Amino acid sequence: MRVVSYTRAISYRVKDENPANIIGLQNERIQRYIKAKGWKLTAKYSDRKFSSEEMTSFNQMLEAGLKREFDCVVMDSIFRFGYNLTDAVSVLQETFCPIGIHFSVVEDDFSSFGKSVSAITDYFKQKRVALLG
Known about the structure:
The protein is α/β, with parallel strands linked by helices. The chain has 4 helices and 5 strands. The chain has helices at residues 22-37, 56-66, 85-96, 117-132, and strands spanning 3-8, 41-47, 72-75, 102-105, 110-111. It is globular.
């Protein structure tokens, strides 16, 4: 299985901290998660600029996914995946899942593997509530 990671310096969750070493921290958690699952990381995508508009690596990852260059994307937090939660849902649930690309979120120990569409939809509903709370 071809697994990639995505990290991002800026979170769109208001209360999240953005320390200078946030990319390294995310990479460490992702690496431990992948190792525990027995997977192998084949590529890393990382938007390192502390700017909410930075999407270069995100767009490269999206393009690679559409070309089916990987089978699963792992992120530390759903709130660091893309510009906002709407974009995250659009890419993960509406774009990747239908073409067979899975996703895993380390902080929630959530993986789309073996999950129904309903379970994935419920996960995103819970994240919307958390974002508003």
